Amino acid sequence: MSATISPDAILKQLADLWTAEGKRGDAGVLRACSMTLVILAEAADDPSALGETVAALMPEHPARAILVRLSGDGERALAERVYEQCWMPFGQRRQICCEQIEITVSDAALADLPSVLLPLAVPDLPVILWCRSARLTGMPERRDIASIATKAIFDSAAVPDDPADALQRLSALRQTGLLVGDLAWTRLTRWRESLARFFENRDYLARLSAIRTVRVAFPIDLATSGWYLAAWAGNALGSLPSVEAGAPALRLDLSSPDFSVSLTREDDRLITTVDGKSTCASLSAPTAYLLMREELGIVRSDPVFDKTLASAARLAVHSSSEQ
């Protein structure tokens, strides 16, 4: 690896790649791009699994994908390579291709990363940053790197040592004006959909205003999901939620003097209980592809998430101070 990378040289390699690709076959290729997707991952992150996720995302969200691999401690060094991701839609002869750039960077060279990434972003299109490295979320360089993005996507659940601090950092980033996504929140989409569908029933909807108690219990490793769930339900109902850490499963309880509803996760099932009567639905863990497909479809401010993030960060600090 060298101490520097030339963005101009990388752009020239991309141009040469398309020139060469255009000369192959009679049908040619279609160049597709709707955004620049920057992925920050540790060098130890499984390249095959990550490559499959990126490949699955490309048909629906074609992008210039820039994979940044963090090599950790060592001398100041960077390296790069350029390649392409192609697929052929069913029934067609023309390939659709997206550009991919891979950059390897040591911790000592992280400060140089924004100046390398910014010229590589496709002009006039969103820049989405997907931070898969839990370690980077606690490093000072994260702010400058995130500043090049239209939206930055993190996973606060990947920071088990201090989940309250992870939410605080995300909330602080959002307050700078940067759009923020959190996969810990995205994993709760099925929960929120299930509860919303439940109250589509007119009889239950009429009893919604009587609910006064919101309680969430969660295992320690699902702390951020528990705080998000409590903050969202509390905001929606105008009620101060209570939380219980260390429970065996993630659980949401809503209750009034004569009515109660609860959602509980048990293995790969979501159990909804209304006044003692339970129904069960499948709730398999969403893959990275499904989570990112949902987040990449949100490129504008999400008021519900923004309010929930701020409330969850406050709730996490309050809960942590009581422990």
Could you give a short description of this structure?
The protein has helices spanning 7-22, 47-57, 113-120, 141-146, 163-175, 183-186, 189-198, 202-206, 223-237, 288-296, 303-322; strands at residues 29-31, 35-42, 63-72, 78-87, 95-106, 127-131, 151-154, 179-182, 213-218, 242-245, 251-256, 259-266, 269-274, 277-282. It is an alpha/beta fold.
Describe the structure.
- It is a single chain.
- The chain is α/β, with parallel strands linked by helices and 323 residues long.
- It has 2 domains: 7-149, no CATH class; 183-323, no CATH class.
- The protein has 11 helices and 14 strands.
- Helix 1 runs parallel beside helix 3 (113-120), helix 5 runs antiparallel to helix 11 (303-322) and helix 9 packs across helix 11.
- The longest helix is centred in the last third of the chain and has 20 residues, at 303-322.
- It is elongated, with a radius of gyration of 22 Å.
Order of helices and strands: HEEHEEEHEHEHEHHHEHEEEEEHH
Largest sheet: 8 strands, mixed
Give the mean pLDDT: 87
Distance between the termini: 47 Å
Radius of gyration: 22 Å
Low-pLDDT sequence parts:
none
Q: Notable features of this structure?
A:
eight-stranded mixed sheet, 2 domains, 11 helices, six-stranded mixed sheet, alpha/beta, 323 residues
Question: Would you spell out the secondary-structure blueprint of this structure?
Answer:
Layout: H1 7-22, E1 29-31, E2 35-42, H2 47-57, E3 63-72, E4 78-87, E5 95-106, H3 113-120, E6 127-131, H4 141-146, E7 151-154, H5 163-175, E8 179-182, H6 183-186, H7 189-198, H8 202-206, E9 213-218, H9 223-237, E10 242-245, E11 251-256, E12 259-266, E13 269-274, E14 277-282, H10 288-296, H11 303-322
Parallel strand pairs: 1-5, 2-3, 2-6, 3-5, 6-7, 7-8, 9-10
Antiparallel strand pairs: 4-5, 9-11, 11-12, 12-13, 13-14
